[in-house]
Amino acid sequence: MRRTKEEAFQTRSDLLDAAEVLFWERGVARTTLEEIARAAGTTRGAIYHHFENKHDLLLTLLDRRLLPHDDDLAKIEADQTADPIVGLRASSRTILERLADDPSQRRVAGILLQRCEPIDDMTETLDIHRRTILRSRERVVRLFERADARGQLAAPWTPRSAAVSLHALITGLIYGWLRAPDDLDLRRDGFACLDAFFAGIVRRHEA
Predict the structure, then answer these.
(1) CA distance 113 to 111
(2) Which keywords fit this entry according to its UniProt record (predicted)?
(3) Which terminus of the chain, N or C, has less C-beta within 10 A?
């Protein structure tokens, strides 16, 4: 029984890996379940054993790579004694580091931003994932609220405007890098932009 569970887990992982590559290369709409099964070395029936349909497969794929950031934010939020600005800056840099270092992270980000063409019921699937993203952003809002309560936010920044701006900055960096990776270095340029952002939102105390 243990071996069967391990084999089932491996099949599920192989299907996700195959879908990730094919979705990135061809787009979600132009990739069939038969092609995913063939690339994973299994059958279409195996897909339906693990996933309801292509949309469920896509959602699981996105969550597999993108949820770790929400986990990072949850840990920062749970530590009431930590400096929220330091934590947010570190987690933002980690996002860019993961993308720069992990080809799989890059493919999944590209699928989400560039390869999710409109197909039947895709709106509902992406709405589910957007709710996950919004949940992460609300964590960021709460962390900026904590920073504001400590007197760390400079005027005219509010916790929400800071959270929305940080999300827009990171998304813009990722999108620009995916479109022209030779023109933008995520570590050098991305870290510099993050440093400038956080320097601009933190209140400067008079000496």
Answers:
(1) 6
(2) DNA-binding, Repressor, Transcription, Transcription regulation
(3) C
